[in-house]
Write a structure and sequence with these properties.
about 150 residues; mainly alpha; globular
């Protein structure tokens, strides 16, 4: 499928199962690390709660995609997943930036490079296709579902 947007699509953008696992991994990392960060004063509790809530929403969205369930229109993401499309977009973008920074500091570390590619692809999937047309994952998932119905 060709998208209307002008950005260059990242590698691994079509590895939906890997992107779902990456989101779950990011959530698990936050749930494990944030309590100590809050205790040490490196992270505010409200900010930690918000970031965990948003990543839980991203994980929930990807579960719907991977299980082939009905995906709501982007304005209803908050109602179904507990965070808005905008919150998911901003959070995924921040996570991608951190993953790329880490990979840059760990040059030659293949795991860090792959993680950066996956988190970047995850963030890209939450970017709008063009303007406010909806995120890439929503449009490509809807198209995938349409193709499945058409071919059956």
């Amino acid at each position: 499928m060709t998208f209307v947007g002008t950005d260059t699509p990242p590698r691994r953008r079509s590895d939906w199962a890997d992107l779902g696992r990456t989101a779950a991994q990011l959530l698990a990392e936050r749930e494990k690390a944030y309590p100590a960060m809050v205790k040490d004063g490196r992270l505010d509790q409200a900010h930690a709660n918000q970031r965990i809530r948003t990543m839980r929403a991203i994980v929930a969205l990807w579960r719907v995609v991977l299980e082939g369930e009905d995906l709501p229109e982007p304005p209803a993401f908050s109602d179904q997943f507990g965070a808005s499309w905008q919150e998911m977009l901003e959070d995924a973008d921040r996570a991608a930036g951190r993953a790329r920074d880490l990979a840059g500091r760990k040059r030659g570390d293949r795991d860090a490079a792959v993680q950066a590619e996956l988190v970047t692809a995850l963030a890209w999937q939450h970017q709008p296709v063009c303007g406010s047309a909806g995120p890439h994952i929503w449009l490509s998932y809807e198209y995938d579902q349409w193709e499945r119905r058409r071919s059956s």
